[in-house]
Amino acid sequence: MKKVAVIGANGQAGARIVDEALRQGYAVTAVVRNKEYKNDKAGVIYKDIMSLEKADLAGFDAVITAFGTWSDETRHLHTDGLLHVADLLSGTDTRLLVVGGAGSLYVDDALSVRLIDTPEFPAEYKPTANAMAQGLDELRKRDDVKWTYLSPAAEFEVDMPRTGEYIVAGEKFTLNEKGESVISYADYAIAMVDEIKNEKFIQKRFSILGK
């Protein structure tokens, strides 16, 4: 049985990834700051992302970071926290999988213009999208970590149902046959956990969307 740690396990994405990993038969450990968090089906580490130590993450087959923050004071942790975890896993066989953003997806074949750079991208989301994109940029420089970055569709929906289906795309912003870019958190979680088993995107970014 593979062992998986989920950082930010009590967030919207993290909680669904924990549920999906358990559903698929993984041994799961939730990494959270909130001492009130309880999960009878998973182990728990109560630590802030920057307080994690190498020993905390030893022995896991995969570490998934679903860490998220939106305030001006903490937004830097999208990069700093990610790199801290990458440093802890450096030189090991443990995979690092990252819940990413859609803003860094490219809208042109030359992969030179990102969704976040287009006039249509909502201004209120740009600070966080830029912070997440910076984290991806830093990961791309690393060959000492088995990282994978998974970007959701542009519309990342909490309340949409779990369908069990999704479309795999690459670095480009992609629409489905209905002309939509949308995915439920539950289906996103399936794709994330499937990648642990499939190992198709090591040291790469990919994206998914609903059918």
Topology overview:
Elements: E1 3-7, H1 12-23, E2 27-32, E3 43-46, E4 62-65, H2 77-89, E5 95-99, H3 126-139, E6 146-151, E7 155-157, E8 167-169, E9 182-184, H4 185-198, E10 204-209
Parallel strand pairs: 1-2, 1-4, 2-3, 4-5, 5-6, 6-10, 7-9
Antiparallel strand pairs: 8-10
Helix pairs in contact: 1-4, 2-3
Organism: Campylobacter californiensis
Protein name: NAD(P)H-binding protein
GO molecular function: oxidoreductase activity, acting on the CH-NH group of donors, NAD or NADP as acceptor
CATH superfamily: NAD(P)-binding Rossmann-like Domain
Spell the H/E element sequence. EHEEEHEHEEEEHE
Placed side by side, the strands forming the largest sheet appear as 3-2-1-4-5-6-10-8
**Could you say what the CATH architecture is?**
3-Layer(aba) Sandwich
Structure characterization notes:
- GO terms for molecular function: oxidoreductase activity, acting on the CH-NH group of donors, NAD or NADP as acceptor.
- It holds the Pfam family NAD_binding_10.
- Residues 8-198 form the NAD(P)-binding domain.
- This is NAD(P)H-binding protein.
- There is one protein chain.
- With 211 residues, this protein is an alpha/beta fold.
- It has one domain (3-209): Rossmann fold (3-Layer(aba) Sandwich).
- It is 25% helix and 21% strand.
- The strands form 2 sheets. It has an 8-stranded mixed beta sheet, sandwiched between helices.
- The mean pLDDT is 96.
